[in-house]
Known about the structure:
Elements: E1 14-16, H1 24-33, E2 40-42, H2 56-68, E3 75-77, H3 89-106, E4 113-116, H4 126-140, E5 148-152, H5 165-174, E6 181-186, H6 187-193, H7 201-211, E7 217-222, E8 224-225, E9 236-237, H8 245-254, E10 263-265, H9 272-286
Parallel strand pairs: 1-10, 2-3, 3-4, 4-5, 5-6, 6-7, 7-10
Antiparallel strand pairs: 8-9
Helix pairs in contact: 1-2, 3-4, 4-5, 8-9
This protein binds fe (iii) ion (2 copies) and zinc ion.
Amino acid sequence: MAASGELPARGPLLGCHLSTSAGYAAMAADAVSIGATTFAFFTRNPRGGNARELDDADLAAFLATCAGHGIGPLVAHAPYTYNLCSAKPETVEFARRAMREDLGRMERLPGNLYNFHPGSHVKQGVDEGVRLICEGLDEVLEPGQRTTVLLETMAGKGTEVGRSFEELARIIEGTRHGELLGVCLDTCHVADAGYDIVSDLDGVLDEFDRVIGLERLRALHLNDSKNPLGSHKDRHERIGEGSLGLETFRAVVTSPRLAGLPMVLETPQAGLDGWAAEIALLRSLAAGE
Ligand code: FE
Ligand code: FE
Ligand code: ZN
């Protein structure tokens, strides 16, 4: 039995993508209200416009709520509009500048994670895409920063870079500050990319370990998929309602190899109630119910 005063075992770190529109303190309160112990948020408007300056009092209240409820690490998400390997120099330049600014702001909530989509090479080819992403990361990553930057595993829609573990490994190996990089595994994306986590999660994690190294895996996005394995589509579905199915997520939340990693839902829900229910469902799977 746990000694009195000791916190109960936490179970998996679970949460969803939350909105910053009412401020950071309100976002942390939303997390508490749905039983989340981690969450994601956009570092600026998802369309990629200007970032609001962080308000000192709002940020202090946010940090206090997270600390008081044992929430974190958090997984901030870069807007989808950033493309470090666009064919347009001004788009590449915008992505680099915006990522630098985002990471500067992330230093005010140190020790968290920042994930981004590596980019789309738009017919320049994977080699040029990887080269541009590495060049961008060399400009963006600052030695000594306290945020780990995560490359997201992609579905391979269009010309997306990061559709295989090999492509992600090439990016990590091609940058000067690979020690600041990790990977966020999106369950919908890897299945859409052709990795069979439905019948062989452990085999996919073995391959991840062989190609990238499991110590690089720092977060997960939990999404079911509207499409079959290898479809390269990227359409998220609610947990248990898509081609991955409930048993896949039972395997994910009970895998000792994934224990302790933040797991963030990006499922189509109408509001906070839907995510609260999904978080509760995943906690019950983790508890063996
Ligand atoms: Fe994403
Ligand atoms: Fe994702
Ligand atoms: Zn997606």
